[in-house]
Structures are given as C-alpha cells and as structure tokens.
C-alpha cells in the first residue's frame, strides 16, 4: 500500500491533489512525467496524511 501523493500548483497559486496512495518511487515518477510536459505548473510529492508516520 502506498503512502505518498502527488500535488500540483497552478499559475494562480491554487493547489490540487493529482494522485494519492502511491509508493514514493511511483509518485516521484508521476510528478516528473507531468513536469516534463512543459506546463508552467509545479508538481511535488508529499506523504499522505495516514502514511506520514510510516
């Protein structure tokens, strides 16, 4: 079971959940894939709330 999520911030500073429940490596891969598309949005990986202490 995964414990990380991918988040996105748009040009206006709004933040959105992109995906959750991922293993860290998969979350990092997904964030990198979105960033490689060249949009002016920021993507990052963070621990899911329920997975933060694992």
Characterization of the model:
By secondary structure, the protein is of the alpha+beta class. The chain has one domain (4-51). It is built from one helix and three strands; from the N terminus they run ββαβ. It has one helix spanning 24-36; strands at residues 4-9, 15-22, 42-47. A three-stranded antiparallel beta sheet has the order 2-1-3, with helices on one face. A hairpin with a 5-residue loop joins β1 (4-9) and β2.
The order of strands across the largest sheet is 2-1-3
What oligomeric state is this? single chain
- SS class: alpha+beta
Q: Give the beta-strand count.
A: 3
The amount of beta strand, in percent, is 35-45%
Mean pLDDT across residues: 89
How many H/I helical runs? 1
Radius of gyration: 11 Å
How many domains, as an integer? 1
String of helices and strands: EEHE
Helix content: 10-25%
Largest sheet: 3 strands, antiparallel
The end-to-end span amounts to 11 Å
What is the 3D shape?
A: flat
Unreliable segments of 5+ consecutive residues: none
Protein name: SPOR domain-containing protein
Give a brief rundown of this model:
The chain is α+β, with helices and mostly antiparallel strands and 54 residues long.
Topology:
Elements: E1 4-9, E2 15-22, H1 24-36, E3 42-47
Antiparallel strand pairs: 1-2, 1-3
Q: Could you list some keywords that capture this structure?
A:
54 residues, alpha+beta, 3-stranded antiparallel β-sheet
